[in-house]
Amino acid sequence: MPRNQSERVKPFGPFEPWPRGSNTAEAEVEHLVGHTLTKIEGAEAGDHEVIFHLKDATFKMYHEQDCCENVSLDDVIGDIKDLIGSPLTMAEVVCGDDEELHKPQREGSGDSHTWTFYKFATVKGYVTLRWYGESNGYYSEEVYFVRIK
């Protein structure tokens, strides 16, 4: 049995873009559990991407904007600095629309609405990144999480 958490967490391997020819690799936010963030960029309401730096890898959370839709970071709940310098004990994503999450529809927004909550924790505290997307219903409102280095 490992003596501490760092003995159980395997480092990220070499960066291998996927699909081939791209400059990113698909990733699951849950794989960050046990790893320590060294820096976070762009985690403010209204931002369209957040960059997570680790010692041996870099990840990006974003939405690829298209016509007739808008997706951005709506709110940061908690102190983002709590995620730096301590191993993550939780990293998960929860998605749903207004009806599923019992949220009121925003005034003047599109036909389709998606909330995406990225939840993180360390021993220092909890942080939730709340993304909001709206569109005419034809375009995606998905928030992507990919490895970029």
End-to-end separation in angstroms reads 31 Å
Q: Based on Cα principal axes, name the global outline.
A: globular
DSSP strand tally: 9
Fraction of residues in helices?
under 10%
Give the tally of structural domains.
1
How much of the polypeptide forms β-strand, as a percent range?
A: 35-45%
Taking the sheet with the most strands, its summary is:
5 strands, antiparallel
Cα-atom radius of gyration: 16 Å
Explain how this protein is built.
With 149 residues, the protein is mostly beta strands. It has one domain (16-147). 3% of the residues lie in helices and 40% in strands. The strands form two sheets. Strands 1-9-4-3-2 form a five-stranded antiparallel beta sheet, with no helix packed on it. A hairpin with a 3-residue loop joins strand 3 and strand 4 (58-62). The longest helix is centred in the first third of the chain and has 4 residues, at 5-8. The chain is globular.
